[in-house]
Amino acid sequence: MAKLTQDELLAQFEEMTLIELSEFVKAFEEKFDVTAAAAVAVAGPAVGGPAAPVEEEKDEFDVILTGAGDKKIQVIKVVRELTSLGLKEAKDLVDGTPKPVLEKVNKEAADKAAEALKGAGAAVEVK
């Protein structure tokens, strides 16, 4: 059998369906006693010992109201401004602290919301 070039192999893979390609990968792993995941791990840290786990930078934050403070009415007004809640729902949210006011928002929106709530006298936590 003639040796195939890398381009010829890629052309063959390109014609395969995902199921056929998945079956090929399984057969390849069995034949050569390797796994696809192991290849990724090899490209990990360089010489010098194990690397510390890299923490992903968060891009979604939750603004949690932990207390209404002395100015409960002001806090309810701010909650209504930040959300689309009606008066009763906003009051229930403030009364039932700790509760999330905003969920999965960007850092800037979370900081603005936290500052607005703190300005109204509320205790706020950003997670």
Task: List the main descriptive attributes of the protein structure presented here.
single chain, 127 residues, 6 helices
Q: How would you sum up this structure, described in words?
A:
By secondary structure, the chain is an alpha+beta fold. The chain has six helices and three strands. It has helices at 6-15, 18-32, 36-42, 72-82, 87-95, 107-119, and strands at residues 61-67, 99-105, 123-126. Strands 2-1-3 form a three-stranded antiparallel β-sheet, with helices on one face. Helix 4 packs across helix 5 (87-95). The termini are far apart. 16% of the residues are buried.
Q: Brief overview, please?
A:
With 127 residues, the chain is α+β, with helices and mostly antiparallel strands. It has 6 helices and 3 strands; from the N terminus they run H-H-H-E-H-H-E-H-E. It is 51% helix and 14% strand.
Reconstruct the topology from this structure.
Blueprint: H1 6-15, H2 18-32, H3 36-42, E1 61-67, H4 72-82, H5 87-95, E2 99-105, H6 107-119, E3 123-126
Helix pairs in contact: 4-5
As a whole number of angstroms, the C-alpha radius of gyration is 27 Å
Which oligomeric form is depicted?
A: single chain
Helix content: 40-55%
Q: Which strand order do you get reading across the main beta sheet?
A: 2-1-3
Count the E strands.
Answer: 3
Rounded mean pLDDT is 80
Shape: rod-shaped
Largest sheet: 3 strands, antiparallel
Structural class: alpha+beta
Tally of helical segments: 6
Low-pLDDT regions: 38-44
What is the ordering of alpha helices and beta strands? Answer: HHHEHHEHE
Strand content: 5-15%
Distance between the termini: 60 Å
